[in-house]
Amino acid sequence: MNALLFAAWVATVPAATSISLDEARAQGRTNTQALVSLLEATRSEQDVRLARSPLLPQLSLNSSAGGALIGRQRIFATVCNEDRSICEQQAVETPSTDRGSFELSLNLTQLIYDRVRWKQLEQSGAVFEAAQGQAREQQDTSELEAINRFFTLYRTQATLQVLEATVRRSEEQLERAQALFEAGRVNRGEELSARVNLGNDRINLLLRQAQLVQDRGLLAVWLARPGSEPLEAQAPESLLQPPPPPPSFEQAIAEARQRRPLLVALQQQVRAASLGQEVARAGYWPRLLAQGSYSRSGPEARPVFATPRLQNTLSGAVVLQWDLFTGLSTDAQVNQARAQVRTAQLNLAQTEREVEAEVQRTLQLLATQIATAQLAAENRETAARSLSLAEERFKAGAGSTLEVRDAQLKLTQSELTLLENRVNVEIARFAMMRAMGTLSPGESK
User: Fold this and answer.
1) CA 249 to chain centre
2) CA 377, 383, 388: angle at the middle one, nearest 5?
3) For residue 1, what pLDDT is reported?
4) Is residue 102 part of a domain?
5) What tens digit of pLDDT does each residue of 111-170 get?
6) Domain range spanning residue 430?
């Protein structure tokens, strides 16, 4: 009955979508977190354009049409008699008047020299490059997480295969115990023990099926796929080959200093902070710009807009602006920028030390996992020979179900240990590559 229930449950599981390690890595680099980081870099790229815009000619067209109504006014005016022999100041009233106001103008401004603007442009470029480095760092982080989730799913799938093999061995052991009991060569207890062992193995298999569903969902969500999509991890080719030895520490740290996106980003942050100091110091320098204007204005619309030979005014000037004293604000800005430079330098130095420690740790972990996997492979071969010997003894009537069961458990444990350590070798290798900045060389500097 239990076997039928298990088979019925397996039949309800939907067909899985196969996914390779390369596909998981590529999709991991374009998941939500990576895309958000790329958008931040895009915004920084637009900041470069904004910083460049004041250095280009500024051209504006203005046009206006209006008027004014002036009511009766009481003013003092000079009033003379008819022969203009006597003139004196008198208070008089003027009648209300109105007049139009029409204007059309074209203004051109070109910055000739402004050290602040040029340094701000350089600074925005450095900030953009730092944002690009941060985006590549996030892509590496997302890819490594996708790799970890892929191998977690694959490990669960492979564990299910090991447990299924254990169930089959338990079923065969139960059949042998029943046959030997019917032949009168073993007692009833051997058959019952074999039946209990089979039930426990089936329970373990069912519990691992639940873990499979969870691991599938975690990988699918990280790859920005439907969370309910049943993925099936393809066996990576690297697992079928002996793991190569790790590189030397000197080689690994040299690669990390050159290729690690995080270090590249922090180096650009130091450069941006240094340029920020130059921007602050540029406040001591004068600014030079040229201005030109062509305008047409008058009290009536027709001369302004329809008679080109009238109402023309052309003007131009070269303007020098120099802030000789700004209340010591420029000095304060320079000191702030100097502190930011020092902060960026300290962050870079600290991160370099952390990366060095990370590289050393991942190298040691990889070497340890390779050695452990080799030992696990030897243990698995020994456990397989031990199970074969126990089964032969049981068939001959010289052994017991307990001995066979003990050998089965040791084989299952050794197979799971080998699987765990072999997968850990691959995870450790990718973690080392991520620390070195060589996870995806095409994306590195």
Assistant:
1) 27
2) 130
3) 46
4) no
5) 998 888 999 899 999 999 999 999 999 999 999 999 999 999 999 999 998 888 889 888
6) 2-30+114-286+327-443
What does the pLDDT look like over 187-232, one tens digit per residue?
777 778 888 888 888 988 888 888 899 999 999 999 999 988 899 9
Question: Into how many domains does the chain fold?
Answer: 1
Helix (H), strand (E), coil (C) string for the chain: CHHHHHHHHHHHCCCCEEECHHHHHHHHCCCHHHHHHHHHHHHHHHHHHHHHHHHCCEEEEEEEEEEEEECCEEEEEEEECCCCCCEEEEEEEECCEEEEEEEEEEEEEEEEECHHHHHHHHHHHHHHHHHHHHHHHHHHHHHHHHHHHHHHHHHHHHHHHHHHHHHHHHHHHHHHHHHHHHCCCCCHHHHHHHHHHHHHHHHHHHHHHHHHHHHHHHHHHHCCCCCCCCEEECCCHHHHCCCCCCCCHHHHHHHHHHHCHHHHHHHHHHHHHHHHHHHHHHHHCCEEEEEEEEEEEECCHHHHHHCCCCCEEEEEEEEEECCCCCCCHHHHHHHHHHHHHHHHHHHHHHHHHHHHHHHHHHHHHHHHHHHHHHHHHHHHHHHHHHHHHHHHHHHCCCCCHHHHHHHHHHHHHHHHHHHHHHHHHHHHHHHHHHHHCCCCHHHCC
Strand partners, 100: 67
What CATH number should be reported for the domain holding residue 279? 1.20.1600.10
- Phi, psi at 68, each rounded to 5°: -140, 140
| 129 in a structural domain | yes
pLDDT tens per residue across span 117-128: 999 899 999 999
Structural domain includes residue 195: yes
Assigned domain for 320 exists? no
